[in-house]
Write a structure and sequence with these properties.
Layout lengths: L12 E3 L3 E6 L5 E10 L2 E6 L8 E7 L7 E13 L9 E9 L3 H18 L1
Antiparallel strand pairs: 1-3, 2-3, 2-5, 3-4, 4-7, 5-6, 6-7
Length: 122
């Protein structure tokens, strides 16, 4: 069965690469990576650590302006393990994160970014 979550999204997503930091609530480990796609409701990232479903993480997202990151929480809503193709390659996890506790101004910043990208692709 094909995952149907993409068709159930309330917010469109676009392929967009920006720097992001993901950490657990205790912040004992911070993972820095890049987004695969982004929308006003959440993001997809590829992580070297697998998180549990519904685990809450802290996010620091650097769109357009590196000096003014978006700070919010996120809930892990799906994880797909990528199997390494060689012994030298690390296991990675495609991870879908739904935004939580994001302020309206930051949500609007993401929405505008998505709209601008969709408009430029049309």
């Amino acid at each position: 069965m094909i995952w149907e979550g993409i068709n159930q999204r309330n917010f469109p997503r676009v392929s967009y690469k920006c720097r992001i930091r993901v950490s657990t609530d205790g912040r004992e480990e911070v993972i820095e990576t890049f987004t695969e796609n982004i929308g006003a409701g959440g993001i997809c990232v590829v992580l070297e650590k697998g998180f549990g479903l519904f685990e809450v993480v802290s996010l620091e997202i650097f769109i357009e302006d590196e000096a003014n990151p978006i700070l919010c929480e996120g809930t892990i809503v799906w994880v797909v393990k990528r199997h390494p193709v060689s012994h030298a390659e690390m296991t990675r996890y495609d991870t879908g994160i739904e935004f939580q506790n994001i302020n309206q101004e930051d949500k609007d910043r993401i929405s505008k970014l998505v709209e601008d990208i969709l408009r430029s692709e049309a």
